[in-house]
Amino acid sequence: xxxxxxVVVIGAGPGGYIAAIRAAQLGMKTACIDDWKxxxxxxxxxxxxxxxxxxxxxxxxxxxENYEHAxxxxxxxxxxxxxxxxxxKQMLARKAKVVxxxxxxxxYLFKKNKVAFYNGVGSFAGSDDGGWRLSVRGDKPAELxxxxxxxxxxxxxxxxxxxxxxxxxxxxxxxxxxxSEVPASLGVIGAGVVGLEMGSVWRRLVAxxxxxxxxxxxxxxxxxxxxxxxxKLFGKQGLTIExxxxxxxxxxxxxxxxxxxxxxxxAVSATFDKLIVSIGRVPxxxxxxxxxxxxALDERGFVTVDDxxxxxxxxxxxxxxxxxxxxxxxxxxxxxVAVAERIAGQHGHVDFNTVPWVIxxxxxxxxxxxxEQQLKAAGVAYRAGTFPFAANGRARALxxxxxxxxxxxxxxxxxxxGMHAIGPLVSELIAEGVVAMEFGAASEDLARICHAHPxxxxxxxxxxxxxxxxxxxx
Length: 474
Ligand code: FAD
Ligand code: NAI
Description:
By secondary structure, the chain is an alpha/beta fold. The chain has 3 domains: 3-157 and 282-350, FAD/NAD(P)-binding domain (3-Layer(bba) Sandwich), CATH 3.50.50.60; 170-279, FAD/NAD(P)-binding domain, CATH 3.50.50; 356-467, Enolase-like, domain 1 (2-Layer Sandwich). The protein has 14 helices and 22 strands. It has helices at 14-25, 47-52, 54-73, 88-112, 173-176, 193-204, 224-237, 290-293, 329-343, 372-377, 393-398, 426-438, 443-448, 458-467, and strands at 3-10, 30-34, 116-119, 121-128, 131-137, 142-151, 155-157, 170-171, 185-189, 208-212, 240-242, 246-252, 256-261, 267-272, 274-277, 281-283, 316-318, 357-359, 364-369, 382-388, 404-410, 416-423. The strands form 5 sheets. Strands 1, 2, 3, 4, 5, 6 and 17 form a 7-stranded mixed β-sheet that branches. The chain has a 5-stranded parallel β-sheet with strand order 8-15-9-10-11. It has a 5-stranded antiparallel β-sheet with strand order 18-19-22-21-20, with helices on both faces. Strand 12 (246-252) and strand 13 (256-261) form a beta hairpin. The protein is globular, with a radius of gyration of 24 Å. The N and C termini lie far apart (71 Å). The structure holds flavin-adenine dinucleotide (FAD) and 1,4-dihydronicotinamide adenine dinucleotide. 1,4-dihydronicotinamide adenine dinucleotide (NAI) is lined by residues 160, 189-195, 197, 212-215, 247, 278-281, 326-328, 358-360.
């Protein structure tokens, strides 16, 4: 006999597991199906983010930054380290432990919230009066019936046409996080978020890293001032980035040869020990039984949804990477909560204008809202205020004074339209910009709020003061 649920979520990434927990909190009988397993066959809920994305990448970013600091930055603090050795095996083991803690945390949360968890591939089998019939294929096959289904099946890496990932030499994000030796030379195709974060990890562990980017502009989605600063700083660190390239062939043998034409149209052949291909991600719907029930996909394979994440099928919803919008864990989570609340008859809401972006390089890059170039293109009159970390006491004490915080405010109303930052821990500072924008704050509001001293957050207050040309410390 199939088991009946109010809500079944397919996928336990940040979108799916959060949706399941919220649905259960709201009193609905909820199940979540997820197919991820560890190499030794254990269920590993958490999706791309937990297993091969946000969490392991941040673990390696931290470890590699510690290594670089111990190698180059401690001496300035008067700490002399005689011998430094890299134990990559231990670094990877620590990363795996952090991932496992997160997997286990989700299993615990499912139990705590009484979410039934099925480890296997979930697919639509049809519908009847009771709702949607779903089957789970795996070690413990099961049949479920759900009044509401939330599709949260995520995304997978996009391969270069004609160049399949082998995760030996041609690596996707999974392979990029699991190299057992530091390659002497590493090629990265795509100077997006994965390329810059993974390129940074391996450069810090002393690989020679070359990033090949198709677009002529660097970090086109970021504010130009921030992108320029990032370009300068990454160059100083020794990350080679070539823009405007056209990849013509990739050949894997004893090493990987990449043929491309450079920005000037000159043919180049570059040889690397390993190659990371990070040119974006594509939605994942294979195996879901989309055809069996007629779930509509758009021309790029994303599940088609309206603004409220409703699909073309009654009581079937879709969230996260498998639908339009930024491929970010926190966007997936917000959609998950909003959909669970809508199913419960509440008014869940996601504000896409205030979804923050963070790139966890060193320095970090973060932004929310509109860039200067977007405001100019839209003909919006604005005022900008910038404050450099070089003038911030906490940044000096940290020994990390690169970058700045910039605020953009409407010229007439002073309402904050965007915050852009590059520098130490701006991943944390950006939350203040998000809160300010959600509450419709003016730059003057931020300028009048007391910020702890010495703290990096004072740079945000000073940027707000700078909008009115009255910085106190610069
Ligand atoms: P996913 O996390 O992809 O989860 C989907 C789950 O569904 C997976 O477990 C999948 O196996 C499962 N599944 C798919 N089909 C089925 C099926 N038929 N049956 C059962 N299960 C199924 N975002 C950030 O916000 N911050 C970051 O720092 C960040 N870092 C990243 C670093 C890397 C290297 C990568 C690759 C991505 C990163 N992202 C980051 C993006 C983030 O991982 C995604 O936006 C997020 O995981 C999307 O969540 P999701 O729930 O939609 O899908
Ligand atoms: P991306 O979209 O961020 O960057 C891909 C880059 O590859 C772009 O700059 C693009 O112009 C370039 N490109 C595309 N085709 C190319 C080609 N043929 N040759 C050379 N360059 C080419 O995608 P990425 O880095 O793979 O990451 C996927 C997604 O995962 C991101 O969009 C982001 O949403 C998410 N992510 C988020 C992180 C974070 O929040 N810190 C970290 C890592 C990933």
